[in-house]
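Sample intake sheet
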Amino acid sequence: GGGGETPPPPVLEEIAVFKGKELEGSIYKHPLYERESKVVIGGEYITTESGTGLVHTAPGHGVEDYQTGLKYNLDLLSPVDDGGLFTEEAGEDLKGKSVLGDGNQAVIDMMREAGALIKEEPYGHKYPYDWRTKKPTIFRATDQWFASVDSFRDQAMEEIAKVEFIPEKGRSRIESMVEGRSDWCISRQRNWGVPIPVFYHKETGEPLLTKESIDHVRKIVLDKGTDAWFEMDEADLLPPSHKDEADQWVKGKDTMDVWFDSGSSWAGVVQERGEDLAYPADMYLEGSDQHRGWFQSSLLTSVAAQGQAPYKTVLTHGFVLDEKGFKMSKSLGNVVDPKQIIEGGKNKKLEPPYGADVLRLWVSSVDYTGDVRVGSNIMKQISDSYRKIRNTLRYLLGNLYDFDPAKHAVSYDEMPSVDKWMLGKLAEVQSEVKEAFEKHQFYRASQCITQLVIGDLSNLYLDVAKDRLYISSPDDLSRRSCQTVLKVALEMLSTSIAPLMPHMAEDAWQNIPWDVDHKSVFQFGWPTLDYAPHDADKWATIREVRDDVNSAMELARRGGVVGANMEAKVVIHCGDNDELKALIKGSMQQDSILAYPSPVTVADDIRFILLASQVKLVDSADAVTDACGEEYTVGVKEGQTESGIVVGVAKADGKKCERCWFYDESVGEHEGQDGVCPRCGHAAAQHFKNATHT
């Protein structure tokens, strides 16, 4: 309140001290009206932190006060009309005044005149505002229409138990809300919406809502839409049995709760289109705030009318925030427009067009069960992942240009261990991706694909495979074995990314160099990958060794000892790990990896895996540092390497093969092979021979 000169507060004399609960049931006289009321104990909404703790209770103007009024059987007074003005019930002095305007000041003035105002001062306190108009709201107790939930609540709880919730915590949220619900207020006082087709008798206020009246209005609405209720007269809207009494009835102005509208969509959409859609629906998908809204209203209407839930699965997601975690708002200027991400902004350098696939990859990469962030930096990171996947597909396609599965595919039994391991890995990841899709865990599928592309393919298998693919003779068994794996990887990767990045997947599929039975990746389905994990522990260990060797390589590269890995000799001490020593030694089945002929298993040789010309095992850490120097050795200090080895890098022995860049004593030692190793000499001879025949 406020306004006018406020006299100083009267001097108060303390007569007695009471606890609040001792006043319960005592009677006091209203300061303005000839009315007596009793003191009641409120609920948890009255606190010691705010106000005096002695508050007025108005059962006609608030849910909490209404509940207190029911407890103490208080009269339900609501002297406020639809326009927020005091009614005659408030007295002639207040009638027609605005509750939140001049009426507020009038009440203060009346209390002052009656000597009932001890003190008046403005202070900040919480008050509900309408989110749309930003104006304070007034709560009123008015006549409403209710749907009783009591009669079918237990059945609704049983149906909830049958539904799959993603994430699972959604089940407990909706259960707690339905379990404590006794009724549902389905009427609203709005100037728009679906009308409640009820008529009221002008004299008695008795409602007319029968099957006949509803069917009659339903036919009119079906023909003319819901506006017919607001535009047509009672004489046309009433059923034939009451048409002659049209002057005695007035149509209601209440509209349906919008949640009742949307909660009935299963009937208007799924059941109505029974030929194309199935009831119950496979899935309802909305934000995490809809357990109180659409999910619940749909459940209640469906159980009440059909005796079952309208959905088999309910999936909830969080909301999209900006890069800093703030809610997007036009006023804050932090709205991220999906169209701008796809097509780019005005300045294409600062706001590049990423395309739909990158946006889709972002969607699939985030855990949608909580709120997610998006912005330019995040999209740049996603774009990097997109390019890595795209470049991997290009690599696969580029190295399959001369491969025909019908002619060149190598059987599993003929393959080296590294190829069998990769096939097992592809099958494992595909299984994880399929499971993730089935559980709608798209972020998990995205992570599996990205880790496969970057960790298993790009950083290891494809890096090591370059030698076989580029250096070996075209029909070399080792090369064709590798191409067989690439073919499987291409199909597996294309189909796995298809739901996430359909354009990239289809682009790759249309560029497959051999004849395919399915013209689109979306016709192909999941490829059958019946490959068991192969030597998984062995290759996990080798990967650790490779990472440790690369650390030493980097030191040697910085020191100018080597440039490319092939210029290196790697010296390793395995300590007491005899198993690892045997693993490394066992992979080197011949003195030189550049000899010809070589078995297909040479692809498993640790020298090819490390891309190093020579690997030497020694019996002590000192032997490593003696051969390589301390500055190019890692692992001397305990815990410095993942595999536990001590490893150093020195310049490789021998001469450099001008074709494969590996170093070996055999380079240039055979007639007609100046500057190349025996393996490359044979490959070159085969090439010229084939060229001559052509």
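Comment: The first strand starts at residue 27 and ends at 29. The radius of gyration is 40 Å.
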